[in-house]
Amino acid sequence: MLAALAVPAALIAAVVVLAPHWPGGDDTSASAAARPRPAAAPSTKPSRSPEPARSPAPARSPAPSVKPKPSPTRIPASGPGTFTAARADTSSSGQYAYRVEVEDGSGVDPDEAAARIAGILAAPRGWGEGGKRSFHRVASGPAGLVVRIATAATTDRICGKGGMNTHGEVNCRLYEKVMVNLKRWQTGSPEFDGPLNDYRALIINHEVGHWLGHGHETCPGKGRPAPAMMQQIYGLKGCVANAWPYDEKGTYLGGPSVP
Fold first, then answer.
1. Which residue among 14, 60, 214, 221 has the highest number of C-beta atoms inside a 10 angstrom radius?
2. CA distance 58 to 100
3. Contact of 215 with 50, CB cutoff 8 Å
4. Structural domain includes residue 162
5. 10 Å Cβ neighbour count for 32?
6. Angle between helices 196-211 and 110-122 (to 10 degrees)
């Protein structure tokens, strides 16, 4: 995706820059034959995700042409580049501390966005994998993962520091920061056949998947669920749109790795 997914992917995620990834669950992957498992520890390498990163010398892909879904409200294309953090979730605890930040003037409430993201991270089909991995939200202090929702201009500027061109359309993952393009968060992707909240899940799962060390994957077969680490923004290649890394039985929904 849902790149830790940008132009819509299903158009809607160390010191080495990864290849960019587009929104909508568009990132890297593992082998289809062997059931890929999430890395034991989060990756420190930057991963590109325009809803889809990574390789010492990232290869650039042309930005897909996207026709955003109409939005009922005006979405600012740029902002001040300052962020407000969501409040900490004192009711939860977990292995990984993360923070949610929203760019000022974006029109998105940080606490509401954080609640959605918390639900995605804790979902049985998400990277929590039924309790095997857990996350807890902090408002300040050390956080190994920072999810930022930012305007297109701010996303481009921050992702550009890692050598990624998000074209004003997609998301990326740079080191510990997952940059979510405001346009994708608010309008989804015309390539993703599903509700907006599912597309948001794809964005987070795709980018966080990069953060956990996963690369891009492709369709494992016609009619099967598209991997969350697939750049669905470029087309489903016969697969069915899907926002989650696991199915209801806890089986990883992967596909062949993309070099």
1. 214
2. 27
3. no
4. yes
5. 19
6. 70
Q: pLDDT by residue (tens digit) across 82-130?
A: 999 999 998 878 889 999 999 999 999 999 999 999 999 999 999 998 7
Whether 34 maps to a domain, the answer reads yes
Residue 74 token pair: 């005006």
pLDDT in tens, 195-240: 999 999 999 999 999 999 999 999 999 999 999 999 887 788 999 9
Specify the pTM.
0.74
SS (H, E, C) 141-182: CCCCEEEEEECHHHHHHHHHCCCCCCCCCCCEEECCEEEEEH
Contacts of 90 (CB under 8 A, 6+ apart): none
DSSP-assigned letters across all residues of 23-57: TTT--B---SSS-----SS---S-B--SB----SS
Q: Which amino acid is at 40?
A: A
Euclidean distance between CA atoms 221 and 175, whole angstroms: 32
Phi/psi at 58 (nearest 5 deg)?
Answer: -55, 135
Sign of the dihedral defined by the CA atoms of residues 145, 181, 164, 158, in that order = negative
Place of tokens 């890394």: 245
66 falls within a domain = no
Alpha-carbon gap, residue 216 to 27, rounded angstroms = 4
Q: Which two tokens stand for residue 206?
A: 């795709």
> Strand 145-150 and strand 177-181: pairing?
parallel
The domain containing residue 175 runs over which residues? Answer: 1-55+78-259
Dmax (CA) for the chain in angstroms is: 46
C-beta of residue 185 within 8 angstroms of C-beta of residue 200: yes
Grouping H, G, I as helix, E, B as strand and the rest as coil, residue 234 is: helix
Residue 70 counted as domain residue: no
